[in-house]
Amino acid sequence: ILSDNFRKSSMKLKSLHLRREVLQKLVKLGGGWRTTVKNYDITDAFQLAKVYRIRDLYLVWSNDLEKNERYFQIIRIWDLLSHQHVARILQCLENIFSMYTDDYLDHYRQVQTEGYASS
What we know:
Elements: H1 4-11, H2 16-30, E1 49-54, E2 57-67, E3 71-82, H3 83-97, H4 102-109
Antiparallel strand pairs: 1-2, 2-3
């Protein structure tokens, strides 16, 4: 799921090559790829948001859940922004994450690369 902030940020990208790099990162994330290299030291208090560097920009994303009959894990792309704005969005995400229930957070933290998170 792409946020409106991400859509606006990505539309401002002038470089076709940079747009392609961002798209490739999104496709890799959607396919289950995760880096083991931490390339940004600021995290939210819940350690749920992830930040990946793409050249001089930072892609802020997190896993999220939708529940129908079972929990279904999705990827939520929050924004693509410069280094100076990352801390601000992480603070906003902390406010969002603080409203999650413990049960939701337990399911949220389960790592799934295929299928459904257990319910």
